[in-house]
Amino acid sequence: MEAYLDNSATTRCEKEVAELVTKLMLEDYGNPSSMHLKGVEAEKYIKEAKTRIAKTLKAKEKEIIFTSGGTESDNMALIGVAMANKRAGKHIITTEIEHAAIHSTAAYLEEMGFEITKIPVDNNGKIKREALEQALREDTILVSIMHVNNEVGAVEPVEEIAKLIKEKSPKAYFHVDAIQSYGKFKIVPKRMGIDLLSVSGHKIHGPKGIGFLYVNEKVKMNPIIFGGGQQSGMRSGTENVPGIAGLGLACEMAYESFDEKVERLYQLKEEFCEGLLKLEDVKINGIFDKTSAPQIVSASFKGIRSEVLLHTLEDRGIYISAGSACSSNKPAPSKTLLAMKVPKEELEATIRFSFSTHTTKGELDDTLEVLEEVLPKLRKYTRH
Amino acid sequence: MYKAFLIKYGEIGVKGKNRYLFEDALVNQIRFVLKDVDGEFQVRKEQGRIFVETEGDYDYEETIEALKRVFGIVGICPVVKMEDNGFDDLAAKTVEYIDKAYPDKNFTFKVKARRARKNYPLDSMEINTELGGKIIEAFPEIKVDVHNPDVELQVEVREKIYVYSKTIKGAGGMPLGTNGKAMLLLSGGIDSPVAGYMIAKRGVKIDAVYFHAPPYTSERAKQKVVDLAKLVSRYSGSMRLFVVNFTDIQLAIYDKCPHEELTIIMRRYMMKIAEHLAKENNCLGLITGESIGQVASQTLHSLAATNAVCTMPVYRPLISFDKQEIVDIAERINTYETSIQPFEDCCTIFVAKHPVTKPNINIIKRSEEHLNDVIEDLMKQTIDSVEVIEIE
Lengths: 384, 392
Known about the structure:
The complex is a heterodimer of chains A (384) and B (392). Chain A is α/β, with parallel strands linked by helices and 384 residues long. Chain A has 2 domains: 3-11 and 257-380, Aspartate Aminotransferase, domain 1; 15-254, Type I PLP-dependent aspartate aminotransferase-like (Major domain) (Aspartate Aminotransferase, domain 2, 3-Layer(aba) Sandwich). Chain A has helices at residues 15-26, 37-57, 70-84, 100-111, 129-135, 158-168, 189-192, 241-254, 258-278, 306-315, 335-339, 344-347, 361-380; strands spanning 3-4, 64-67, 91-95, 115-119, 140-146, 173-177, 196-200, 211-215, 282-284, 296-301, 318-319, 321-322, 350-354. In chain A, the strands form 3 sheets. A 7-stranded mixed sheet of chain A has the order 2-8-7-6-5-3-4, with helices on both faces. Chain A has a 4-stranded antiparallel sheet with strand order 9-10-13-12, with helices on one face. The model of chain A is unreliable at 324-328 (pLDDT under 50). In chain B, helix 5 (191-201) runs parallel beside helix 6 (219-236). Chain B is an alpha/beta fold. In chain B, strand 2 (41-46) and strand 3 form a beta hairpin. The longest helix of chain B is centred in the C-terminal third of the chain and has 19 residues, at 262-280. At the A-B interface, helix 10 of A face helix 7 of B.
């Protein structure tokens, strides 16, 4: 048996996507900057990918910038906007539950003389509206808030937030880290008031090492990578054409039969959560109804260190994350769970299950069964 | 500039009739470490010395770094090797060597020639004076001092001519495998790799045993130990790493014995298993990274209690070292960075809040009696399921 329930860490590439990537590596391998036929061919793939992606967002093709993934998109949004707008103000707002790609970039900007305000969240991981209202100022140039939290699946009301920003800080741009939400939510940046949006390929069954940043055409942003002037000078470096083509296809596929897929995920989540709560001493972190993300469940198993449960499940072919995969290599407590004021003993006992459209009910039932079997055994041996 | 290295070795020079065994072991180990260095090398014994020679391009820095890891080498002399094209050519090339090797000419020197090929037109004394003269001529600021020179320029006339004057300090110790083999208890920590390195330095070959406890320790913790074994093997040569799944024994102890004695009892069983594997694999002793008082299980009382289960000698090269001294060596032999990766090892997962620091061996033995009905089977299962990883 194998149950891969770590889809918020990464997903398996769609077969069609992998085949397209391979084809571009082996056959249509030209450099889009080359003047000959091979170059033109490569350029076509980029154009096609842009068309596919733009369509999912109801955006313009020129508003898509390809990057090496979510981290670079986040870096580009923050640093690029900060540098281009520093005369208008030096105040940036973000939240306490962002991914390290935002946190660390904000810390860097703070060192460079920008002022950073971090908005706290409630026990469910939702940002506190009053705190944001108070933080927004005349010299705020950028607000960066994640759409779906990667650790607990809390969904932030980005549309409402966008309205509030336009009201109180009309000069400020609004960046949304949509790395966990793209493909699971319909996102129309222009209608929702989003100016910049980060997306990563490998979270939506695309290749690793590719992603994009949507940048509304009216946004003033500087590049952060310099060189040969590719992508209108906004992101130099020979384009990762196979990755870009693969990403384009993965994006298109993510929004095919969208309502059905999402509905199925919510169904799976609901049943899985019901199953979890039937087990002894299990708590689900945050909200897990239909206002939460359909693919993420964060649960604390009282008295069991998450790492031990992780390795126990791994031994049975079940792959999950302890807290967030990006922080699990160093045993630092999860920032999101800390911000949600989850007590320490629950924090150390937290596991994240994350689904994808490939996830089956059988996998989840098996997981529940294994949990029921191993939890009492693990609880017998605890550290004193 | 250098096309050969003269290898100086110390202690093995005095080993009487066994000397060739030591020299052969040294030659083998030199070949082993040079395998991964860019270049083609010939290693040969010649009249009580070892030469490493190379033709063509090679990476000098890498070669020196590799040779510095060979136990038994006291010094490495980079040698300028030349064809015999007459004395004037020798003089010119020697002057060029001095110029490159010593940018600061403010030193004293003497020439020490040896003429192994007796048909060379000049004898040793003549080479000394003539060559010395040419050097002073070229660099007037360099002075001769025959009694206490800063630089002793060695010139050896054989089929070819060898000129050298610098000695790079080697690792010292004795050639690997000349003193048998021992079993290292390798955890993921800072100390045990250093302990293995130190015993290997005295010519002892090493095998290692690691205790892991899935699911309480991770696959990455095991990978870390494999990485550490590889780093140690850069000095100690290839080794076998025995991976013991210790979970069931650990849980049995946890179930049946007092928690404050857990670590001691656990370590006693580790020693028993290590000794068993050592005997099966022709090892003559165990090696641990213990140091007095570092943790509760390393007080003299605790060490006595763990030691009592073994009949084999247990070598503890770090026994009187402070942590910082151990860290210094770990940094020098490049194991420190790997050791400090934060993965839990099986010694810490069930550690009691207040472990005994002065265990009484009789009380410990009585606690162990609680395991009587299960331990024999568990030990057998554990030993039967040992995984062996060859570290090349």
